[in-house]
Write a structure and sequence with these properties.
With about 130 residues, the protein is α/β, with parallel strands linked by helices. Helices cover about 40% and strands about 20% of the residues. The chain starts with a strand and ends with a strand. Strands 2-3-4-1-5-6 form a six-stranded mixed β-sheet, with helices on both faces.
Length: about 130
Amino acid sequence: MILITGGIGQGKHKFAADLLHCDANSLTDGCSCELSDVPGCSCITDYHILVRRLMDNGIDPVGFTEQLCREYPDTVVVMDEIGCGIVPLDRGERIWRENTGRCGCIIADNSHTVIRMVCGIPISIKGELP
């Protein structure tokens, strides 16, 4: 697995598309894809939004992520860093952030490469840049 993370608008989608030699529009979009399309896709973007969608559909995102890592170890996952900043007052928002952080940790642990994007520049924080 490869995890690409960083703040919003840092070039994660473009980097993933370049890595996979495809158009960014052909990546599986965690914001709008069918949940059944995620397993087996080459790259899932906006995984942090997918976590919220899983929660909204009564699916445990941590268990889903563990299964994804076990069964599809070649997947590239793109997710925003959402745990920094002010802690939300809304309990549901806090739970979403916590689940997203846990899922990110699981993906990072199962990834041979973890990349943090800053201003369009990839920085390897685990493994070597592809």
